[in-house]
């Protein structure tokens, strides 16, 4: 790729939000968090990196190796210690012990790892997520973005109740904003290498995305007991592995969609989000 | 290092905050942000990584190369594509085009890069910061932590007024919390390779840290026109390079100190922070 084209793609990959965009993103996040709290969730706060050995538990290096970014130190003995043409070559880097997550909910499973949970556990968290995409697009496809999640752990029935409840809220919120969102069944690459779950997924979709055009701005996800098993999270009553499910909001993507809807007027969008949130309750 | 010892050091490097700690961190952040707003700042929202070519402008790879972490993709052709013993070797990694920042205020200079600012510009932002430390300690010395900053850009006098005002607020807030904070002159490695500024720094300290014991939980920093020059930020009136200064709060470190002060009772700490914030106004 010519240097100038790569430069352009790098500047599409990241954004510093201006004050009006920041207020809007904070309002959206407060709205989704409020839905979580009103459903009984408390908030936990995860870091934006984990030991590689933790992320490995979730098959991320098997199922989507190309998407991953890891945090490497500089090798100041073998390497040059400084970037050349805006990059460090592999030979400049030391071994990477930390990985950058590409989804927020991992933090919830690591938080509850090795513990027993109530049948109807609900928690919310937001994190910076990282995806090494082939191409980037401002607000829509960033190398780093924010994802708010509401995560249910407990019985399978609890996960499905939470997903049903939030599906309804997302629908009502979108209608109140006159946003034309389509709920689309999707596949989840988590389960591609897991025969039984891959079969179940073909029989009954485990992921639905809420899309405006081709852009998914929210999703609801059923993981069955995949994460419960991987993190040995068990039900307090009975001791079987917990089922999990999550509701995810891509915050910058909501900004992208509202930017379109309100012709770039983030203040007007903020007013509308406030009004819609009040309407949905 | 034996594997078990390294495992321990990795788990000291990161923390997932529980709900009470999360509420406390959010309250502290809202308090410091409120001080910024009441002084006229609006908030911007930076990403937790930047092109290496942007961070390079700030001499980070010259002045503290050991502290830096960069985000590398996996080389799926030459590398093994999976971690061994919880790490990817350098040979498993591709070239790194993005760096992870170790301070928050870079986002402000990149936001205003190439623009003209008013004499008394004030902005606030929080970010995830990353430091590849030799040793880690829970909440006190993490590989990734949150830093809230209030950044002044404009005339030198403006930067000094903001620093004086926030020094007073920090002092009053600490007193209201009965926190024994000491203001300590420190040196800033930014200017070590810059002859004239290094001399100025020896004549007149440009960094003061607010320490409890040996732990700095806040700092005030005078950068003169270093960042204004590096990012070509100029004064709207007159066109000379802007002066900058910043006030920084290490949020997890405040948690560490309040945890000590309140014997691990984060809810009691939250009540005290609310009361102290009201008192300071």
Features:
homodimer, 281 residues, 10 helices, 2 domains, seven-stranded mixed β-sheet, 12 strands, alpha+beta, globular, BirA Bifunctional Protein, domain 2
Question: If you had to describe this structure to a student in words, what would you say it looks like?
Answer:
2 copies of one chain form a homodimer. Chain A is of the alpha+beta class. The first copy, chain A, has 2 domains: 3-48 and 101-280, BirA Bifunctional Protein, domain 2, CATH 3.30.930; 49-100, no CATH class. Chain A contains 10 helices and 12 strands. Chain A has a 7-stranded mixed sheet. Chain A has a 3-stranded antiparallel sheet with strand order 2-4-3. The termini of chain A are far apart. At the A-B interface, helix 1, helix 2, strand 1, strand 2 and strand 3 of A face helix 1, helix 2, strand 1, strand 2 and strand 3 of B. Strand 3 of chain A pairs antiparallel with strand 3 of chain B.
Please outline the helices and strands.
Two copies of one chain form a homodimer.
Chain A lengths: L2 H11 L5 H20 L3 E2 L6 E2 H4 L4 H4 L5 E5 L24 E3 L5 H6 L4 E2 L2 E11 L13 E11 L1 H21 L5 E5 L8 H9 L3 E6 L2 E10 L1 H5 L3 E2 L7 E8 H11 L4 H15 L1
Parallel strand pairs in A: 1-6, 5-11
Antiparallel strand pairs in A: 2-4, 3-4, 6-7, 7-12, 8-9, 9-10, 10-12
Helix pairs in contact in A: 2-9, 2-10, 6-10
CATH homology superfamily of the largest domain in chain A? Bira Bifunctional Protein, Domain 2
Strand content of chain A: 15-25%
Strand order of the largest sheet of chain A: 1-6-7-12-10-9-8
Uncertain parts of chain A? none
Count of extended strands of chain A: 12
Shape of chain A: globular
State the CATH class of the largest domain in chain A.
Answer: Alpha Beta
Task: Give the terminus-to-terminus CA distance of chain A.
Answer: 49 Å
Which architecture of the largest domain in chain A would the CATH scheme give at its second level?
Answer: 2-Layer Sandwich
**How would you state the average pLDDT of chain A, rounded?**
93
- Helix percentage of chain A: 25-40%
Largest sheet of chain A: 7 strands, mixed
Order of helices and strands of chain A: HHEEHHEEHEEEHEHEEHEEHH
């Amino acid at each position: 790729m010519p240097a100038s084209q790569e430069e352009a793609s790098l500047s599409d990959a990241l954004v510093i939000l201006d004050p009006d965009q920041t207020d809007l993103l904070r309002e959206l996040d407060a709205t989704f968090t409020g839905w979580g709290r009103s459903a009984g969730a408390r908030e936990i706060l995860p870091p934006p990196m984990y030991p590689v050995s933790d992320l490995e538990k979730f098959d991320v290096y098997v199922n989507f190796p190309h998407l991953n970014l890891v945090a490497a130190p500089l090798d100041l003995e073998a390497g040059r210690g400084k970037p050349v043409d805006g990059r460090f070559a592999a030979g400049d880097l030391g071994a990477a012990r930390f990985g950058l997550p590409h989804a927020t909910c991992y933090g919830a499973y690591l938080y509850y790892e090795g513990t027993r949970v109530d049948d109807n556990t609900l928690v919310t968290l937001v994190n910076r997520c990282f995806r090494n995409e082939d191409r980037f697009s401002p607000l829509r496809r960033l190398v780093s973005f924010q994802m708010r999640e509401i995560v249910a752990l407990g019985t399978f029935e609890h996960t499905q109740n939470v997903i049903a409840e939030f599906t309804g809220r997302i629908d009502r919120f979108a209608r109140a904003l006159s946003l034309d969102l389509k709920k689309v069944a999707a596949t989840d690459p988590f389960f591609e290498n897991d025969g039984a779950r891959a079969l179940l997924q073909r029989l009954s979709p485990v992921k639905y995305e809420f899309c405006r055009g081709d852009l998914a701005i929210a999703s609801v996800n059923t993981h069955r007991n995949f994460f419960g098993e991987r993190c040995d999270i068990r039900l307090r009553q009975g001791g079987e592995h917990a089922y999990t499910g999550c509701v995810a909001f891509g915050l910058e993507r909501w900004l992208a969609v509202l930017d379109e809807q309100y012709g770039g007027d983030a203040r007007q969008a903020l007013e509308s989000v406030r009004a819609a949130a009040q309407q949905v309750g």
